[in-house]
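call fold(seq) -> tokens
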Amino acid sequence: MSGVVVLTLAGAAGAVASPQQLTLKGPKATRFGHVVDFTGRLSPAAAGTRVRLMRGKTFIAGTAIRNGGGYKLQVSLGRPGPFHTVAGLVSSNPVTVRIVPNLVAKLVGTRVAGEPLVVVARLEPDFAGSVRIQVTRGGSEAFRGSFSQSARVRLGTTTAEPFDVAVDVLPAPGYAPVGRKLRVALRAPALALGDSGPVVSEFLRRLNGLGYATPSARQVFDEDVLQSVYAFQKAQNLPRTGVADAAFWRRLAKPAELVPRYRRPTSHIEIDKRRQILMVVRGGRVTLVVPVSTAGIAGYYTPVGRFAISRKIPGYDTSPLGVLYKPMYFYGGYAIHGNPSVPPYPASHGCIRVPNFMIDRLYDTEPYGETVVVY
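ret:
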């Protein structure tokens, strides 16, 4: 970029002196704080003449004209100008240099689901524009906001689902746009009995949406939550650790679809002794998965075959197999019933134990005559 201003001087007799020209060249753009070169020439040359670099009326730097008329000024720029030079009575045309501001954007905190995580953004210089932060999760915008000079935004980490953070500068005049993209991949926490936090209620919500037995929403990993984890691990053929570990979270992101073994009748109950789960089938689809414990004591067994619910007791009932809570009898003294202890392995006298928080629901929804298939 260059400009020329011609100064013409007339002598006393009207003679015209040689005109002076002052040129200025500079970069089209530079990063904030970087040293750049402004160069130019005064002609006819006048070695030793002082030349000043100005931004408007503000002095930036000065030097002397060299032999041959050339000059060079090295300066660190924070503002875009326009700039011009002055040598005596001669001025150059203005030159504008776009400034690329420094954008600092970083994540502060542990990258673990459920733990605090903050995106911090800062603009240098602080008058170069405003900062915009956009958070995208699962292809949908989760947050957008604009801030002057700096920002601090707390990110949602209740799930281990990855998301993207875009930090952009909305530049002031003379400054260039700049942006940064941060890909956030959270590590799944290993949650076990006694842990707490919003991530507990989040994975319960997801399990419930997939049709697994879950207690009412809560943020504490208690005995009922443990049964929900067991239900998922059993149905998905995962190790029955009772811990929401990395394998649990990976499968929760891409669970295997459950398909009933039997299509008729379209509404029935299936008990899968190998996986130790009860599946409620409606319209030929699995709509509910409940963890169970079948016979596991020497000398006892859980009958296999096709049966039907024939008797229901609304409270506790004493049977040859023990005291049963809300039993639904399907074959003699064998019943589906509630129990405070439902380990992830066979441990009953022959009945089908389900968690107490689930027997209330099953008792109310499973009618007399409902088909029960045990295999």
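Helices lie at 198-209, 223-235, 246-253, 356-365.
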